[in-house]
Amino acid sequence: MSDSSSSDSSSSSEEKKKKKKDKKKDKKKKDKKKDKKKKKEKDKKKKKDKKDPYSKTAQEKARLEAQQRLMGIDTNKKAKKKKKKKSSSSESSGSESEKVRKMQDLLDDQTMKREEELAEEAEKATEPVPEKSWEEMTWSERAADAAQKAEAQAVWKGASRADARRAAARASEEVLLHAVDDGFVQTVPQRAKFNAATGTLSRG
Q1: Mapped to the 3 state alphabet, what secondary structure does the chain carry?
Q2: Angle between helices 161-181 and 139-156 (to 10 degrees)
Q3: Band of the pLDDT at 170, cuts 50, 70, 90?
Q4: What integer pLDDT is reported at residue 79 of this predicted model?
Q5: Closest by alpha carbon to 137, among 81, 77, 90, 178?
Q6: What is the pLDDT of residue 178?
Q7: What confidence score (pLDDT) does residue 96 get?
Q8: Do 58 and 52 touch, CB atoms closer than 8 A?
């Protein structure tokens, strides 16, 4: 009788152990399934971010490409493709941000070069044109110079535009009178005559 009771107790304890093991296995399976599901969701999210045209990376890339096009940089040039093993989504998203960073660097370089060019051009433009001395000028140039100075002086004193022009004309006339005294003859260009026979204008 004692033997049968001991065998029953041992079998029941074995059953309990078996149930515990089964429970542990089920739990492990469930945990694995959960992990897989989470991983899939993460991968899907990363892929979505990569393909999403409204993601921050995509927007930044588009903005940089537009700036490069405005600066005359060819964005359509494709680099030689190297055969690579299929990379994970995390690697691909990393390479995308790397591309954007490189584009930003290139754009910064181009901007700096353009700014330097513009600065050089501005420097050349601001270089004063050496003025001719009175002796080097022709009488026409002297008259124009005197008129310009007289007009500027009149404007500076607060004269109206019409008064300033009159002052310029007077100054020019004075110089030309001196020129006539000096023996200068101002040549007036002849008006073109209409030739009825040929239907063209001719000078002389």
Answers
A1: CHHHHHHHHHHHHHHHHHHHHHHHHHHHHHHHHHHHHHHHHHHHHHHHHHHCCCCHHHHHHHHHHHHHHHCCCCCCCCCCCCCCCCCCHHHHHHHHHHHHHHHHHHHHHHHHHHHHHHHHHHHHHHCCCCCCCCCCCCHHHHHHHHHHHHHHHHHHCCCCHHHHHHHHHHHHHHHHHHHHHCCCCCCCCCCCEEECCCCEEECC
A2: 150
A3: very high
A4: 46
A5: 178
A6: 82
A7: 80
A8: yes
> Which tens digit of pLDDT belongs to each residue from 81-122?
545 555 555 556 677 888 888 888 888 888 888 888 888 877
pLDDT value at residue 1: 47
- Mean pLDDT computed over 18-31: 70
Burial class for 178, CB neighbours closer than 10 Å (0-12, 13-18, 19+): middle
Distance, in Å, from the CA atom of 59 to the CA atom of 65, rounded to the nearest integer, reads: 10
Q: Measure the CA–CA gap between 118 and 112, rounded to whole angstroms.
A: 10
**Beta carbons within 10 angstroms of residue 168's beta carbon:** 22
Rounded-to-integer distance, Cα 126 and Cα 22, Å: 90
